[in-house]
User: What shape does this take?
Amino acid sequence: METQQPEFNVDSDSLKTILRVLGEGAYTVDRDRRIVFWNQAAERLTGYRADDIVGRKCSDNLLRHVLADGTELCLHGCPLLATMEDGNSREAQVYLHHRDGHRLPVFVRSAPLRDNDGSIVGSLEIFSDRSDGNALLAELESLKREILTDPLTGLGNRRYLDIMSETRFAALKEEGLHFGLMLADIDHFKRVNDDYGHLNGDRILTMTAKTIAGAVGSLDAVVRFGGEEFVVLCPNCGGADLAKIAERICTLLRHAWIDIGPEEKLSVTVSIGGAISEREDDLKSLVARADKRMYECKKTGRDRYLIGD
Assistant: This one.
């Protein structure tokens, strides 16, 4: 979306000083989209240090902004490039690639950079974390995090799932508020451990967990169900809504990876089964329906989802 935001002169003595102390991530690129400045907040939000970034292009398998539908903006529709071409500032909600591998939801704003003659010589992007922290993670602090949290991924554990599901089933019985449950399983995870070791397996688990958590809404809860399985609870949700969330999760994971060597990257996909709660359900029966559909996805090719009632 184009906005009427101020333009910046790259020769301003105060510009870099302002950007350095800015609480939001900020970086500048030249006309070739080569990064020339990277502030401390950008280091904190992305995991990439300025030494890793400056001098490289943002499309060099680093940030690689994508939309929820998987469109790679660095390759198709880069807002920085468009801003340099027409001089208009822009805003967008995207997912950037974190150094740890997961996809992080951010709000980005771009503005043109001009020299003293008024010619556009680059672009500035400012970005901020727009993840809601997931309602799960916010609640864990007041519910004795050490008891209810999976220590590896930081998500809730089975005990937390029991608590959350009791709340959802109570709302279903008392107010008729149906909810959705999805079971996501990492495809071929055993191969990851066998071929790349358990340390990289743990990194893949953490990457997947954070990507899923970043793909859902603020009222949804993501739980590590066990091993390489994750459960997502989505309140006030129908089948079509649940399918959209599942599609977003699958899409974002296709564009997420971890670095395991100078020239080697490792990524995974998930198979997702989902079901909508019924009044006669309990957690066991709801998980069983989702589990059955998840295994149907495994049998028919993986990297897909199947949602039903």
